[in-house]
Structure formats: C-alpha cells, structure tokens
Specification:
About 25% of the residues lie in helices and about 20% in strands. It contains nine helices and 18 strands. Strand 1 and strand 2 form a beta hairpin.
C-alpha cells in the first residue's frame, strides 16, 4: 500500500482552533512550516518554528512567568518570553499549579445543557443485590501466580465450544502474578479485594477459584460462607495439591463450570433501567487531538448517563493531576472535593 503524504494537501481556511476566548494559545489543525505566516482573526501570525498538527501556538505575547491559557483554563506558566507565532511546548511551558485556591461544588448543577432523555432501559441480567450486569460470564480466578496456568487451561477447555443457548456469554480466566510468597499486609489485602471484586462483578454469573494450595492467598478466603457475595453468584474452589496436579485441577475446574452452566445458565436478559449502568472510562491512547474530540464526546456521554441516574468511573490519577481544581468545582460537596485533594496529595508523596 502506498503511503500518501497529506501535509501539502491540507490547507484549511482556518488552520488554528481557539478553544476559548480567554486562550492565548491555539491548536494547529495542520503542520505549519517555520517562516510561513497565517491569517487568524484579522491578524497575521508569523510561524517562528515548525509546528506539528495538534500542537500549541501562541497568538499573543506571553512574558516569562505569565499564565498560559488553553480551554479557558490555566495550563502552566511561560518559562521564557513567548512571542506570537511561537511553538508552545515543554521547552517554554512550565507546569506550575502554585498555591491554588480551590473552589468546591460551585459549578454543580442539573446539567441544564444536557437533554433529559426519556427514561430508557437496556437488556441485562438483574442480580440479587440490586445491580444489573450487561454480560453473564463465568470467571476462573487464580488465587496466586502458581495457579495462573491452570486458570488459563480451564478457559481453553471452552475455547472451541459454542455456548449458544446456554445463557452464558463466556468462560474467562483471570490469571495474575501475585499471591504466593506474599507477606500479609496492605498488598495482600488489596489483592483479595481485587479478586473478590472480580468474582462479585455484576457481569459474573459465577466464579471458580483455583489455587496451588500452599500460597499465602488461600482460596478459602473467597469460598467461606461468611464471605459469600450478596449477588448470590455461586463460587467453587479447587487447589492443584488437593486435585492432584495441573491436569486434574483443570478437569475439576471444567467439570465445575459445566455444573454451574446447568445451575445459572437459564437466566434470560430482561429490561433494566439505565440507572443500573456503571461505566468505566479508559484512556485509549491520547493523541494531540483527543482532548478536543473524543474526550468531550465521552464527557457528554457521561453527563447523559449521570442524568439518567447511572454511574461513571474515572480512575486514572495521572490524568487528573493538574486538573483537580476543575473537578472540585463539580464535586457534589466540599467533603467529596477535599477527599479528592487528599488523594492527589497522597499521589504526590508516592511519586
């Protein structure tokens, strides 16, 4: 396939994007060559250095130490004098949050600009604890790295098998690298919470736990009666040592999966309110334009879902750092906003 160079083909009437009237930098829509000039908002901007598509260009003089604005918000301070037409990047832009004065819950509203759609539903699986799943999986969860291969082999037993008509969407293994010679403490507790959460996920109809037998993270933690989840999802547990080796535990695990399919596979999808949806947001690989294209789209979707009573989770601390002042304004209360700042302070100490 021929590679086409489109640099010379893109010559829009407006090569810049100003995101907010306060901004003193704009976004280049196309690559710009040093020495060229651009007509922008009744002014001629000389391009002083080569600028790649998606990068920032100053449209006015910004003296060293002055604030650089993009999206109408502070994104840093000028590390040196910046002239109109200069590329604004790490060489002349400093990240400096300074002594910020945080505001709390002062832009919280009912999202007047977001339409309140008619109450909608999705076809899901209601769970006993009131949640609803969008899938009906059987999870094969390893208690430790020692059982990782066995969990994958149980999944493999069903790789070429059609589950159509069974009411089960798939058999999925969750191997990992922890849990064996791990000291009791915060790390082990976090591992247990994580694996317990996988087994208790609303998209999981049932779970099979597999361990070696002598690891720190014992399967008994997950299968004990007092630790059964409110979801009502059955759990089975096996170890390589009790079953008699890898081959035997794989056979035991596969047999348990087939028994579980008979037990819970008859569940049917039914209409569930949109308010039951919980959606996790994940950075799909940022590029120069994602902040002004896909991110606002995802944000608008999030507002639509929240207005329907649903829940959206953003858990990338590094993506939040530096923009926490924007989130505190939309926090539901000062207490919630201050909890976010506590997490940011923890993160700064950690790194």
């Amino acid at each position: 396939m021929d590679v086409v160079n489109i640099e010379g083909l893109l010559q829009p009437d407006n090569p810049f994007i100003r995101l907010n009237f306060r901004d003193n930098v704009v976004v280049a829509r196309v690559p710009l060559s040093a020495g060229s000039s651009v007509q922008f908002e009744s002014a001629e901007i000389p391009i002083r250095q080569a600028v790649g598509a998606g990068h920032k260009v100053a449209v006015e003089t910004i003296r060293a130490g002055e604030t650089v604005f993009k999206y109408g918000e502070e994104i840093g301070r000028a590390g040196a004098d910046i002239e109109a037409g200069d590329l604004v990047h790490v060489h002349n832009l400093e990240f400096d949050v300074g002594e910020r004065k945080y505001e709390f819950a002062n832009t919280l509203n009912d999202l007047e600009g977001v339409p309140l759609l008619a109450a909608d539903t999705f076809l899901g699986y209601p769970r006993a604890d009131g949640r609803a799943g969008t899938r009906n999986f059987i999870a094969i969860v390893g208690a430790s790295n020692c059982a990782a291969y066995a969990t994958e082999q149980v999944e493999t037993q069903f790789a070429g098998e059609s589950l159509d008509g069974s009411g089960i969407d798939g058999v999925i293994a969750f191997p990992h690298v922890d849990g064996c010679g791990q000291a009791e403490g915060a790390d082990t507790q976090q591992l247990r919470r994580t694996l317990d959460g996988l087994a208790d996920h609303p998209n999981v109809a049932a779970a099979v736990m597999i361990g070696l037998g002598c690891e720190v993270n014992q399967i008994g933690y997950y299968t004990r009666e007092e630790n059964r989840d409110e979801n009502g999802a059955p759990r089975r547990g096996f170890t390589l040592q009790e079953s008699g080796g890898t081959t035997a535990v794989v056979m035991d695990g596969a047999k348990a999966v087939r028994e579980i399919i008979d037990e819970v596979g008859g569940r049917q999808r039914v209409p569930c309110p949109t308010s039951k949806l919980v959606v996790a947001l994940e950075c799909g690989g940022s590029d120069a334009f994602s902040g002004i294209t896909s991110n606002p789209s995802v944000g608008y979707f999030s507002d639509l879902l929240v207005k329907q009573g649903g829940t959206v989770c953003l858990a990338e601390t590094t993506e939040v750092y530096g923009a926490e002042h924007l989130l505190t304004r939309r926090a539901v209360s000062r207490e919630v906003g201050e909890r976010l700042l506590e997490k940011i302070e923890w993160y700064k100490r950690y790194v």
